[in-house]
Design goal:
Bound molecules: S-adenosylmethionine
Largest sheet: 7 strands, mixed
CATH superfamily: Vaccinia Virus protein VP39
Strand content: 15-25%
Structural class: alpha/beta
CATH class: Alpha Beta
């Protein structure tokens, strides 16, 4: 028996709310096939891409900085494990997204040169691409690298000329420094005048002694409980503070973020 011609054809379900028609969805999928860069705007897609890339790596694909310094060797081992478990992949979004609220930066995103120190995974690079920075303007610096965009190097001796970057991303990396003053002086050296800096740090309710007793804890760059402490590291070089995120009182017994986003003089 054929379909009653007076009866309207049943819509194919797209699985989307608000009865989005199937042809709309197909058009969007076609658009994504033609412009795959847009996929990086979808968190689940970029996390999946970054995680698959990490899973596909062999030992020989991962380079590490070997300079004989014991604290660097410990940091490398600790972060290689973190890389393999691919944890915290989306965390950098929380310090890169606030940059997009800065109109003066938004109008020059396409030409802005950005350095991310300690990205660990390519997901941080994907996030910068999704934010609107261009691939040729993105540079990473880390003690470990499996990516052609991430240079091997130490944040205390950055292999870059002075006045090189318009934006510097320091995502949960300064805590690994055994000489935060030196690391900050390197940031100030390679930053262009008026550069934007975004910093993420972990707030942890444990004392330094408790952390030091914990096996595997190699974080030596000091504790941070307030965004003001991050700003204090940059002192008089800070021209304007765009964003601060302090630990919420509900989270004082947990680990959470401390974030500061500012412009340098
Ligand atoms: C905790 S991970 C942060 C990863 C990522 N930025 C995030 O927000 O999740 C710290 C990264 O900083 C890198 N790192 C630690 N000490 C460093 C140093 N002296 N110079 C450059 N990178 C360093 C580590 O290798 C690691 O990839």
């Amino acid at each position: 028996m054929g379909r009653d011609p007076k009866r309207p054809a049943r819509r194919r379900s797209t699985g989307l709310p608000l009865k989005v028609p199937a042809e709309f969805l197909e058009e969007i999928i076609g658009f994504l096939r033609r412009s795959p860069l847009q996929l990086l705007h979808i968190p689940v897609a970029r996390i999946n891409l970054a995680a698959r890339r990490i899973k596909s790596l062999g030992e020989a694909d991962i380079q590490t900085l070997e300079d004989g310094d014991a604290s660097i060797t410990n940091t490398v081992l600790h972060n290689l494990n973190g890389l393999k478990s691919a944890s915290a992949l989306e965390r950098p979004w929380r310090i890169i997204a606030p940059l997009l609220g800065i109109f003066h930066l938004c109008v020059k995103l396409e030409t802005a040169k950005v350095l991310t120190v300690g990205p660990r995974t390519e997901n941080e690079l994907f996030i910068l691409l999704a934010a609107g920075f261009r691939e040729e303007n993105i540079t990473g610096l880390d003690l470990i690298s499996y990516s052609e965009k991430v240079k091997l190097g130490d944040m205390h001796r950055m292999p870059f000329a002075a006045d090189s970057f318009d934006v510097i991303v320091l995502g949960w990396v300064l805590a690994y420094s055994n000489d935060v003053e030196k690391a900050v002086s390197e940031v100030l050296r390679v930053a262009k005048p008026g550069a934007y800096v975004t910093v993420g740090w972990e707030y942890n309710p444990k004392t330094s002694e408790e952390l030091a007793r914990e096996s595997g804890s190699i974080v030596s760059g000091g504790r941070v409980n307030h965004a003001e402490e991050i700003l204090g590291l940059f002192g008089d070089h800070v021209d304007y503070v765009h964003f601060k995120s302090e630990p919420h009182p509900d989270m004082w017994d947990n680990t959470t973020d401390v974030v500061a986003v500012f412009r340098l003089k």
